[in-house]
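Incident log, support desk, overnight shift.

02:14 A customer reports that sequence design results differ from what the structure should imply. Their input is reproduced verbatim below. On-call engineer (initials T.W.) acknowledged and began investigating.
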């Protein structure tokens, strides 16, 4: 099963579903991560051009730890994402090319605008990719069996799928700590660990868990 992860910024993939990514890699599922924006607005201490390069380098280092080799950087400006024709066409093309059976994307009620826009973007692109339209994005339609929405900074109000990541957590945290430019200001690693522990306790499915909203369910 091919897996595709939509990440609004470098590091969101690890925060939201890094443990699940580790699980997929261990099970032999090819994983592609699509970073929608460069994350160049991630702090006020570095010029945007330099920070964009730093964050790409951090994302590549984190992905190597997780075992992910296929990374796509779309390069859109941080904080200004729009769901327009050009980016939609690119994402439809990626979906048709990669042919994922499972797609992870941020849930639609995330507080961060780029997170919500990524949800909108991929939701629409998934719909378009499945139909006999938009030939400029690739000639063969592709319909994704399963779509799971992950939580980053805003916990899901309702959870419909739980993944026990207890044995994957150490590697998830090690990968997240590769995003050093972001951890200088906010301890995202501790926040992710705490949320995963909370989900483990409240669901009773493991010591540490990642939780998702099921948008479409097929084979997981």
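02:41 Re-run completed on a clean worker. Output:
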């Amino acid at each position: 099963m091919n897996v595709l992860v939509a990440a609004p910024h470098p590091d969101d993939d690890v925060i939201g579903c890094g443990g699940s990514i580790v699980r997929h890699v261990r099970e032999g599922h090819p994983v592609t991560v699509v970073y929608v924006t460069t994350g160049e607005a991630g702090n006020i201490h570095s010029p945007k051009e330099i920070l964009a390069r730093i964050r790409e380098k951090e994302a590549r280092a984190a992905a190597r730890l997780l075992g992910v080799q296929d990374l796509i950087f779309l390069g859109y400006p941080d904080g200004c994402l729009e769901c327009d024709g050009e980016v939609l066409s690119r994402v439809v093309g990626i979906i048709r090319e990669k042919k994922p059976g499972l797609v992870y994307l941020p849930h639609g009620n995330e507080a961060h605008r780029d997170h919500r826009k990524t949800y909108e973007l991929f939701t629409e692109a998934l719909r378009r990719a499945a139909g006999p339209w938009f030939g400029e994005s690739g000639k063969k339609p592709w319909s994704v069996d399963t779509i799971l929405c992950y939580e980053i900074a805003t916990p899901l109000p309702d959870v419909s799928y739980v993944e026990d990541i207890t044995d994957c957590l150490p590697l998830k945290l090690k990968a997240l700590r590769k995003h050093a430019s972001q951890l200088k200001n906010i301890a995202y690693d501790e926040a992710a660990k705490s949320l995963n522990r909370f989900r483990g306790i409240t669901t009773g499915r493991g010591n540490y868990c990642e939780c998702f909203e099921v948008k479409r369910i097929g084979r997981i």
